[in-house]
Amino acid sequence: MVDKRKKTKEKFSLIQRVTEKATTEEAHGVYTFTLSGLANKKEIAARVRQDFKVTPIKIHIVNLPKKSVTIMGRRGTRGGAVKALVYLKQGDKITHSVPIKK
Fold first, then answer.
1. Beta-bridge partner residues of 102
2. Longest dimension (CA), the chain
3. What angle do CA 34, 100, 45 make, to 5 degrees?
4. Where does the chain show beta strands of DSSP type E?
5. CB neighbour list of residue 28: distance below 8 Å, 6 or more residues apart
């Protein structure tokens, strides 16, 4: 039996969220990313270590639900995302929203 997780292992990306709340949390060592694709906490931690050269202490994953909307008499949905909160130890920083390539 083929493990489906191994096929989709590298099919996610971390996109840094730039909001007022996320910016204020960066001062406390908490960085907020939007996930595109499926990933678990271990895969996110490995990607942060690889791309930004820092080690996260803990990671929280938050599912943002889709919202129902009605546009021109038709029902639909908008939004919906997965957000990852990455906690770093005191003194570590992520200074680039784009991963460092060496």
1. none
2. 53
3. 50
4. 13-16, 30-36, 56-71, 74-88
5. none
For tokens 């493990």, the residue is: 3
In order along the chain (102 residues), what is the average pLDDT of each group of 10 residues? 56 88 92 91 94 94 94 92 94 72 56
Strands 56-71 and 30-36 come out as unpaired
Going along the chain from its start, the domains and CATH numbers come out as 8-88 (3.30.70.330)
- 3-state SS assignment for residue 42: helix
pLDDT tens, 83-97?
999 999 988 888 765
In angstroms, rounded to a whole number, what is the distance separating the alpha carbons of residues 100 and 63?
A: 27
